[in-house]
Amino acid sequence: MPSLLQTCLDGSGSVDLSALRGTPMVVNLWATWCGPCRTEAPFLAEASQQSGGSVRFVGVDVADPDPAAALEFAAGQGWTYAQVADPDRAFAGRIGVVGIPQTLFVDADGRIVYRHAGALTSADQLRGLLRDQLAIG
């Protein structure tokens, strides 16, 4: 995971995603203007709530014109995990993401081990990817 300081969507500070090591992560890139992102949102909420802390979930809001609306959307989806802003697509560009949604599976050493391009179709699919890509579940 490249080192790049991202501002928390709620403005509470910043986080360097490359520093979040030690626990496997699911990093989901999304935006309010992205229809498929809205479709997969409940699956991310369900899987994150059922993970029991065995995996860290992080959302990356990409190029949203209204951060307040993005924060409201995230809260409305039941996402209780950290959300960071990528207003200028610097993070997305640095990791080679062209389109969203995209979900990255990152091992405990901070290596991206799998990329799922496009919308997740169910919480079961996401749990299967956690099992297959990160040996969680």
Fold and architecture overview:
There is one protein chain. 31% of the residues lie in helices and 26% in strands. The chain is built from four helices and seven strands. A seven-stranded mixed beta sheet has the order 2-1-5-4-3-6-7. The longest helix is centred in the N-terminal third of the chain and has 16 residues, at 35-50.
- What CATH architecture do you see? 3-Layer(aba) Sandwich
Structural class: alpha/beta
Helix count? 4
CATH class: Alpha Beta
Multimeric status of the protein: single chain
**Global outline:** globular
Q: What is the CATH third-level topology name?
A: Glutaredoxin
**What is the alpha-carbon Rg in Å?**
13 Å
Total strand count, please? 7
For the biggest β-sheet, the strand order reads 2-1-5-4-3-6-7
% residues in beta strands: 25-35%
Mean pLDDT: 92
What series of H and E elements makes up the topology? EEEHEHEHEEH
Give the biggest sheet.
Answer: 7 strands, mixed
What is the helix fraction of residues, given as a range? 25-40%
- What is the CATH homologous superfamily assignment? Glutaredoxin
Please mark out the parts with pLDDT under 50 across 5 or more consecutive residues, or reply none. none
